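FAQ

Q: What does a record look like?
A: Structure on top, sequence underneath. For example:
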């Protein structure tokens, strides 16, 4: 028994039912044992039996894009830059503060159960070279002042609120970079979660700070984020929005089933007028895609209008979180 009085171990079949009841339309993946379980889940996926419309990172090229975008090098470059900052999010605990009826409310804290989603590094928050009297705010440094680092790199990661709900979950979360093929499993650079800076339950988005103690990784990631934002600014300044809103293509980058990074392409089929003004699209997603960036081609004038993926109603009716601006 755990200290809060609930059994931490349940037979797998009961746990699977609990997970099913807990997640609704949101698309996280779960793992109760070794991570090789994730590939089995992908093989026996009951949403998309073939996954043939998902494109592995190594196979993505400009010919994968809709015809009118194939010659646009700046669009291809932006998607590549977004691929390089997209992360697999792993959350090892679930908050008891999730409200009743909300995704994973019934799960409670259950040792050994990992949740998987996606996200992207949106900005660099603190450079590794910054010098002041503070120490790194990560759980490891905070709980052991004797080894607390005086230099660290800090980043903001965007994901869905149902993936990282609050500070407790942030402190039990990590982000893995460059998980681009199954060969990368266990070898990826990792960021450690700290706290939720901003989030909204109805809009289904979270901005979470993550840190690294690795100076090389910090500098490399700062450069990648800066490159992505420069490309976005360049496209925004062109105001390249001459496309019918109902047929605008979307590109989603995510980690379906908590496995390697994939790209999926589709079109926006519906868009809500009231909050959350989420978009519904045909681009394929699966459990584990929650939180991945949804790039809407032709909407570059809205600089930060890249919502995380949120949920799914059918194979071709997948939808985003609120495409918020600030
Ligand atoms: Zn699937
Ligand atoms: Zn630290």
């Amino acid at each position: 028994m755990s200290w809060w009085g609930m059994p931490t171990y349940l037979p797998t079949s009961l746990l699977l039912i609990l997970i099913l009841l807990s997640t609704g339309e949101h698309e996280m993946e779960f793992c109760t044992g070794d991570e090789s379980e994730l590939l089995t889940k992908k093989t026996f996926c009951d949403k998309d039996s073939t996954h043939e419309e998902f494109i592995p990172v190594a196979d993505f090229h400009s010919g994968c894009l809709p015809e009118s975008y194939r010659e646009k090098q700046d669009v291809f470059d932006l998607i590549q830059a977004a691929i390089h900052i997209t992360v697999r999010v792993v959350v090892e605990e679930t908050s008891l503060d999730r409200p009743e009826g909300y995704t994973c409310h019934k799960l409670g804290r259950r040792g050994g159960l990992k949740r998987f989603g996606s996200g992207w590094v949106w900005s660099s928050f603190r450079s590794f070279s910054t010098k002041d009297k503070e120490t790194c705010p990560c759980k490891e440094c905070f709980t052991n002042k004797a080894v607390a680092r005086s230099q660290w790199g800090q980043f903001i990661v965007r994901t869905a609120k149902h993936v990282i709900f609050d500070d407790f979950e942030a402190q039990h979360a990590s982000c893995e970079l460059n998980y681009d093929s199954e060969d990368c499993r266990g070898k990826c650079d990792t960021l450690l979660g700290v706290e939720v800076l901003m989030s909204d339950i109805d809009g289904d988005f979270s901005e979470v700070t993550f840190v690294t103690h690795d100076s090389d990784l910090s500098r490399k990631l700062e450069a990648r984020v800066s490159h992505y934002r420069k490309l976005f600014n360049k496209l925004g300044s062109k105001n390249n929005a001459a496309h019918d809103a109902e047929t605008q293509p979307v590109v989603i980058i995510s980690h379906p089933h908590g496995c390697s990074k994939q790209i999926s392409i589709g079109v926006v089929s519906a868009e809500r007028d009231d909050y959350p003004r989420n978009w519904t699209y045909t681009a394929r997603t699966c459990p584990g895609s929650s939180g991945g960036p949804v790039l809407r081609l032709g909407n570059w004038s809205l600089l930060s209008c890249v919502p995380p993926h949120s949920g799914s109603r059918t194979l071709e009716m997948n939808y985003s979180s609120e495409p918020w601006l600030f």
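Q: Is there anything notable about this one?
A: The pocket of zinc ion (ligand 2) is lined by residues 136, 138, 140-141, 149, 152, 211, 213 (CB under 6 Å).
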